[in-house]
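Risk register update: the risk of archive-format incompatibility is retired. Evidence:
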Amino acid sequence: MAWIVVMIIPRATAFAKPGLGRRLKLKPPWVKMDILRGGMVRTFLWFAYFWAFQLASIPFLLAYFVLGLLGRERGRARLLEWITRAWARRMIAAAGGKVEVLGLENLPRQQGVLFVSNHQGAFDIPLLIGFVPVLKGFVSKKENFRLPIVSTWMRLLGCIVIDRNDLRQSAGAIARGIRDLQAGRSLVIFPEGTRSKSGRLQRFKEGSFKLATRSGAAIVPLTIDGSFRLLEGNRGRIRPGTVRLTIHPPIVAGDCDGGDKAALAARVQDIIGSALGS
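Archived output:
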């Protein structure tokens, strides 16, 4: 195991630099093969690639923990951002997805931001990890934490598990999210509560906006347009497609009718919906 530490740690700290993602060769060889477009073969290869990447990430997990023992917190943060962003972009590329990002200039410089996004499909999480250049966790259902290796990376990102069937656990998860935002860690929520699996916007649940009203964090609305076409719109088969991600200007919860959750949810939903299908 010693050779892994010797080889991986220097590379991890050297590679985890701004702009590296643009130099990565992100597309696996089958992406340009027309014969695989829309077929089960592409879907099978994508899942094989997904798990192969998870296994390949294990040495980087080791490097992350060793960097912690050495007290190199900045190096750990850079490694975490680099490996998760590389994974996310590769997963989108392997599906044949093309991403157009609008509004990067709207990203606030301060930390502790609450990103609020619509939720069209299973590719939304890698989309936001890969193309919103901010280290952030997700408020996610407990089922996502059952995936080996993936769940470890999720916890390192600061993702918060929520059990929809356990009110006490859900309240504790919200309280932790408030503390994380106040401590300067950014989070993502999907206030629809589940994937729409279409281009339609579902009603936002007011309860999720407690994170903003109680923490005082700035809200950055995000519009995902077209991610469902990569999977959910194809009867469970992965097909190439184009996704547009719009980053809207930040808003402050207190500016909306004294921080009323219902008014805030309606306002954010209108903002996100304004960039759908336009």
